[in-house]
Amino acid sequence: xxxxxxxxxxxxxxxxxLAQQQSFAEWVAELRAEAAALGISEATLAALDDxxxxxxxxxxxxxxxxxxxxxxxxxxxxxxxxRQVERGQELLAEHRVLLEEVRQxxxxxxxxxxxxxxxxxxxxxxxxxxSVLQALATLAYDPRRADMFRAQILTALxxxxxxxxxxxxxxxxxxxxxxxxxxxxxxxxxxxVDGDGDGRIDIWNSLPDIFHSAAxxxxxxxxxxxxxxxxxxxLPDNFDFALAGTNIRKPLQEWRDMGILRTSGAPIPVADxxxxxxxxxxxTGPAFLTYDNFRVTRVYNTPIFYAxxxxxxxxxxxxxxxxxxxxxxxxxMSVEQVRELQELLNGLGFDSGEPDGRVGSRTRNAIRAxxxxxxxxxxSYASFALLESLRS
Length: 392
Hints:
globular, two-stranded antiparallel ribbon
C-alpha cells in the first residue's frame, strides 16, 4: 500500500494543475485517465461518471471565514458538556473489552480513543453526509489546493477499488474526511487496519476497524501509552510568559524549579519527560503543561484548541475534574478587529504578515514582540485590551 501511495503522490505533484484551463468534464476525463494509468479498474472508474459539477456548498465551506475568532471558552464549551462526558463514560464501559484489546496492541489508552471519537464525530453520529468523491473532486478541480486534493481523490478511488467501501457508501465531511474518526483517504490508506478480520477496512460502521485504525495511526505517530497528554497547572506570580508556546520544551524538573504547581497546589511530579507550556486564553486564563502525546494529537489535527479539548475530555472520561481556571467573560474578537490589530502591529514595525483576520503563529510572534517592548505579559494573546493599547 505505502509504495503505491508514494508513487501516486509523486505522480500528482509532477502533474500541473489544469483546472483553470479546463471544463469540469474535461478535468474528470483527465483524472479518469490518470487513475486508469495507476491501475484503478474500469468498474471503480465508473463512479466518476456520477460526478456532478463542483458543489457550490463545498466551495463555500472551504472559503468561508467566521465573523468572530473563536475563543477557547467557546470552542471547549461546544465540545465538552456534562452529557458528552456521561455518554463517553457509558461507551467506554460498553466497549471496554474491545478497547482493552486495542490498548494491548497499540498502547493507546481507551479514554483517549473515546475522546477523539467524541470530538471528530460525536461518537459516530455526525460524519459529514457528503459524497467523498464529489467533495474531493470539487476541491481538486478548484485551483487553490488542486494538487493536494487530487492526491486524495486518487487515493479514495484506490480504497474503493480495493473493496473496502463502495463509492455510494463513501461518505464524509465537505473536505473529504471519512468515517467515525474522520480520516482523509491518504491516512486511511497508510494506517487503516482490518480490526474485525473480515478482509475490509470499514471506518464507517465497524468499531474494531475504527478503533484499531485510529490507535495504529496514533501509535505510528509516536503515542506513548504510559504517559498522559499534559495537565492544567498553576503559574507563579512571576512567571515569564516568554517561556510559553509549543516551540519551547523543557524538562519537568525545570518547570518544577520555576514554581509550577498542580491545581491542587502540590508541586508537579517529575519524570524523564519534556514539556511545553500552553496558554490558550491569555495570561488570565488556564495554563497547561503539555507532553509528547499532546504533540501527537496535533498530528491528528493541528489546532491547539483541538488538542487541548481531546486531552481534557479524555481526563473527564477517566473521572477528572473540569478545568479549574477558565477565563471569565472571554470575549471573541471579530475578524475585522483582528485585521485592525494586525495592521496596527505592522505599522509599528512588528511583522504580523498580510492582515487577514486570522491569529496565526506570525501574528502571535508580532504580539509577543510588542508586549515585550511595552513591558506587558508576553502571552501572545489577541485581546480587546491589546487592541486598545495599540490604538493608543
